[in-house]
Design a protein that fits this description.
Strand content of chain B: 25-35%
Number of strands of chain A: 4
CATH class of chain B: Alpha Beta
Structural class of chain B: alpha/beta
Low-confidence stretches of chain A: none
Radius of gyration of chain A: 22 Å
CATH superfamily of chain B: P-loop containing nucleotide triphosphate hydrolases
CATH architecture of chain B: 3-Layer(aba) Sandwich
Number of domains of chain B: 1
Shape of chain A: globular
CATH topology of chain B: Rossmann fold
Strand content of chain A: 5-15%
Strand order of the largest sheet of chain A: 2-1-4-3
Oligomer: heterodimer
Largest sheet of chain A: 4 strands, antiparallel
Number of helices of chain B: 9
Shape of chain B: globular
Number of domains of chain A: 2
Structural class of chain A: mainly alpha
Radius of gyration of chain B: 17 Å
Number of helices of chain A: 10
Largest interface: A-B, 25 and 28 residues
Helix content of chain A: over 70%
Low-confidence stretches of chain B: none
Distance between the termini of chain A: 22 Å
Mean pLDDT of chain A: 83
Order of helices and strands of chain B: EEEHEHEHHHEHEHEEHH
Number of strands of chain B: 9
Chain lengths: ~280, ~230
């Protein structure tokens, strides 16, 4: 599987580098506008004219870059199923699960690299434009929250982001394979997306439902299990308890145990089903 | 001699059309077998089922005792009827790829074949002509010490010089321990290398047998026999 990942990375890194370049340019424009706005309050607080236009385009570019990455990853897999490259991939002595696992891991790695590049580059830009003031601000925030809470926010956010990224990718691949298998290998553009929307809606609904039925949350900072009302006593009146992840009053993160487990179950079932379909049902 | 491939009652249906209808045959180890028939006769469908990228609608297929799957893919060296390499690759990448995934890949033989085919390892896959692509794909496929080679139309659509090079490469690199299955409708160019021939007509086995015996029995070349069967 690692060998296959290597070739997946080699085949797509140029595109990802291009996406990162777009994101970094867009970040620079946005940060520059923020810098100008914050240091020229007396003259012009708002970006106007060409600056406003470039700011708008830059924000669009960031959304566009993430969307393009998603569509690129989707497109690569569709090419495997509908174009000649599948003759190489699916005649390799690899199980469907190994091929799928490699594709999902590479997708997650690309998203992680893109996200990390943006975060680090923006921190670098913040240092360039604003000096070390942002570091002081973050230090003050950490001392206000406490190191335990900060760690719990980071770990719980990471777990939830990773789970949702894995689930999204598994559902994308499952939808593409289902669209190929369900209509006897005829290519109907967009069918996979309809299947993806249905599957995403269904899984989200069930995760929310199970989170409502069993509103027990894991406090990452001390690994204690709490009822939703223990975190937010006042919401026992409103009954708003249907979320898989919540921030407490101190921004501490809590993960709904049953919702999260159900999400994991969907990831595993989706993965097994997709791998099986790739190996046993796909006709090229 | 033992059978390497056993096919029993194999059927493949696309919607309402039967591409293969109740095909039963066996292929012995160490033979070069020609699967002959015009376009639409079911040759590629049969080959793709053996290669494990098409599922039969009915019947059974065994390759070296296993149903088509991961195990059989590791012993089959398959040349499809199209370019199957990733378009970002250059020839060296393709060699590395085969070396990484196939334990039976002989890198030295690959370089020898590239040399013979006059292909440079730094050439980009997406810049190759059809003939060069065919030669590259064949070089990679023949560089494996596989139990079964499956070549789907290896000389279709290439110029006569490339055709001769491809035929020479097949003859020179054929290993007598292996089985080679070749589909073609260009029978005249290839008939001399076949030990056995299978004529497929409208998805069914019309005739099969030893190539030499058929020539003697019918007193004609396999190419003429092909024309007699499919020309009517």
């Amino acid at each position: 599987m690692r060998k296959y990942m290597k070739y997946e990375i080699r085949g797509s890194y140029r595109f990802i580098l291009g996406i990162i370049a777009v994101l970094l340019i867009a970040s620079t424009i946005i940060q520059y506008n923020i810098y100008k706005a914050s240091y020229n309050v007396s003259t012009s607080y708002e970006a106007t004219g060409i600056r406003a236009f470039t700011l708008f385009i830059s924000i669009l570019a960031i959304f566009g870059a993430f969307l393009s990455t998603f569509l690129y990853i989707v497109g690569l897999f569709r090419k495997e199923l509908y174009e000649s490259r599948g003759y190489l991939t699916f005649t390799l002595p690899l199980t469907g699960h190994k091929i799928l696992g490699a594709k999902i891991l590479v997708g997650v790695i690309w998203y992680a690299i893109i996200t990390l590049s943006i975060v680090l580059y923006n921190l670098f830009l913040a240092t360039v434009f604003h000096g070390s003031t942002w570091i002081q601000a973050i230090k003050r925030l950490i001392s206000f929250l406490g190191p335990g809470t900060t760690t719990s926010i980071i770990i719980s956010s990471l777990i939830i982001s990773l789970q949702s990224t894995f689930l999204s990718l598994v559902l994308v691949y499952l939808s593409i394979v289902l669209s190929k298998v369900s209509i006897k290998n005829k290519k109907i553009g967009g069918l996979w997306f309809v299947i993806f929307l249905v599957l995403s809606g269904l899984t989200s609904y069930l995760i929310i439902k199970i989170s409502q039925i069993f509103p027990y949350y894991l406090d990452i900072s001390n690994l204690k299990i709490l009822h939703y009302y223990d975190v937010f006593p006042l919401t026992s009146i409103t009954g708003d308890i249907g979320r898989i992840f919540i921030y407490g009053s101190n921004l501490d993160g809590y993960i709904n145990i049953f919702g999260s487990l159900l999400e994991l179950l969907f990831i595993v079932l989706g993965f097994l089903a997709t791998g099986y379909l790739i190996e046993k049902k796909i006709d090229l | 001699m033992a059978n390497i491939i056993e096919i029993k009652g194999l059927t493949k249906t696309y919607h309402n059309k039967k591409a293969l209808n109740n095909v039963t045959l066996t292929i012995e180890k160490g033979k070069v077998v020609g699967i002959l028939g015009p376009n639409g006769s079911g040759k590629t469908t049969l080959i793709k089922i053996l290669a494990g990228i098409l599922r039969p609608t009915g019947g059974e297929v065994f390759i070296d005792g296993n149903r088509p799957g991961v195990t059989t893919k590791s012993i089959i060296s398959y040349l499809p009827d199209r370019n199957f390499l990733y378009d970002w690759m250059n020839i060296q990448d393709a060699i590395n790829f085969f070396k990484d995934f196939y334990a039976d890949f002989d890198e030295n033989r690959a370089y020898e074949l590239l040399d013979f085919m006059k292909l440079d390892k730094n050439m980009k896959v997406d810049s190759l002509s059809k003939g060069m692509m065919e030669k590259l794909n064949l070089s990679l496929v023949l560089s494996r010490n596989a139990k079964v080679y499956i070549l789907d139309e290896p000389i279709a659509g290439v110029d006569p010089v490339a055709r001769d090079q491809i035929l020479d490469a097949i003859i020179n690199n054929y290993n007598e321990e292996s089985t080679m299955i070749i589909t073609t409708h260009l029978v005249r160019d290839m008939e001399n290398i076949f030990d056995e021939v299978i004529f497929l007509k409208e998805g069914e086995v019309y005739l099969l047998g030893n190539a030499e015996a058929l020539r003697e029995e019918r007193n004609m070349k396999i190419d003429d026999l092909y024309k007699e069967i499919f020309g009517a």
